[in-house]
Amino acid sequence: MTVIRQDDLIDSIADALQYISYYHPVDFIRAMEEAYNKEQSEAARDAIAQILVNSRMCAQGHRPICQDTGIVTVFIRVGMDVQWDADMTVTEMINEGVRRAYLNPDNVLRASILSDPDGARTNTKDNTPAVIHYELVAGDKLDIDVAAKGGGSEAKSKFAMLNPSDSVVDWVLSVVPTMGAGWCPPGMLGVGIGGTAEKAMQLAKEALMQPIDIHDLQRRGAQNRAEELRLELHDKINRLGIGAQGLGGLTTVMDVKVKDYPTHAANKPVALIPNCAATRHVHFTLDGSGPAELVPPSLEDWPDISWQPGDSVRRVNLDTVTAEETQSWQPGDTLLLSGKMLTGRDAAHKKMVDMLARGETLPVDLKGRFIYYVGPVDPVGDEVVGPAGPTTATRMDKFTGTLLEQTGLQGMIGKAERGPLAIEAIKEYGAVYLMAVGGAAYLVSKAIKAAEVIAFPELGMEAIYEFDVVDMPVTVAVDSQGQSVHESGPRIWRQRIEEQLIDVSSL
Hints:
By secondary structure, this protein is of the alpha/beta class. It has helices spanning 6-22, 26-38, 42-61, 90-102, 151-154, 168-175, 197-207, 214-220, 225-238, 323-326, 346-357, 397-407, 420-429, 441-445, 485-500; strands at residues 3-5, 71-79, 83-85, 114-115, 122-123, 131-137, 142-149, 158-162, 187-194, 253-261, 268-275, 281-286, 314-317, 334-343, 370-372, 411-414, 432-435, 448-455, 464-478. The protein is 33% helix and 23% strand. The strands form 5 sheets. The chain has a 5-stranded mixed barrel. Helix 11 (346-357) crosses helix 12 (397-407) and helix 12 (397-407) runs parallel beside helix 13. The termini are far apart.
């Protein structure tokens, strides 16, 4: 009979969360390398290169792949013959492991979990509680999957209760383009079919714990309906031309996972959940012999790829940039930003807009400035700031018009596309929106040479900072005329794929 000790489970959860914060799964690295080698879109290839360089840097430096270190999800299968040497419940043990991982002073992980989600939204400060799924199974072991899921990709989750005769493929192909690039492609899609509404969502999330193995399936062929769907969806989604970071290209998904479950005759529940370019999950088993031993991948598993800006890059001094200069920028241009920029995301934007509505003076002058949508990880050692990649820009869309009109803000930097409301405001006020690569947070942080909180310190990671940056890479995503690369890029590559019959099936 197996006896699981309390500290063994706690330590295993804590170690697993630290491990996945800086090590990508090897199957993901290899799939990204393959996508990089096959990519024909210069912008998408550049984005993939940044992600791979960032991944290797994080593996070497033991710092988070992404500034959004996620909400913890645990799938735990408990053998019915397991005995416990513990005075805590299993849920308490798992949450204690989460707490220790996120407060580890050697690699601080950003706490993003808020209690009272429709009220005060108060940060729990240690990223607890985790979302835990239990299953009692035969045997005398614990079988555990641990994942840390970023909020940007989780926000793009979809669900539908289809009619029994409706096509799952048609539904998926209709919703993937509406997800934009806020889920940080290229990544994986988990599809859950059947059961009830909540079961379908759980199936989709659980599917994302599986390794990337679409090429093995392509070689041997489908053996059931779920595998047929995987092959068809993988091919057809990549033919949409969305590409890395939504910039247009050949690889939008590296794999599609499908899990199903028997359902009611009147229903066909279908769930879709994406995993982003900061895919973080690990599997381990506890058999009573001690905590899990997680073997680090070899640095040789990462490709020998470096990131260098292209010949057409423009260097921009944020301290002297003018509106006339920004009006010459075109969608898809690569810029290297130097100088002082502000930061601010959801909570800071709401406070500023509320202050303006009350006629109050803002604590910081935005006129002619650029604001970066980011909530950085706390620094460790001699770092100026921890990993500081962009957050999803569309969440700021409803504030954009007010800030551009009333403050003279000149530019914004974030992740993925902007919606129609923001694009119209950008066009009206002659502003610009720039995109940094999601999934390259540690790489971006190396461009930040100084960081100071200058407003709303009570907001923690959502406070307004002033960063001093040198050669921070960004892409012009929406120019001053309202032209968006996230509309033009996928359209161009979808047309090229159709006209040139580019083979995306092996991507």
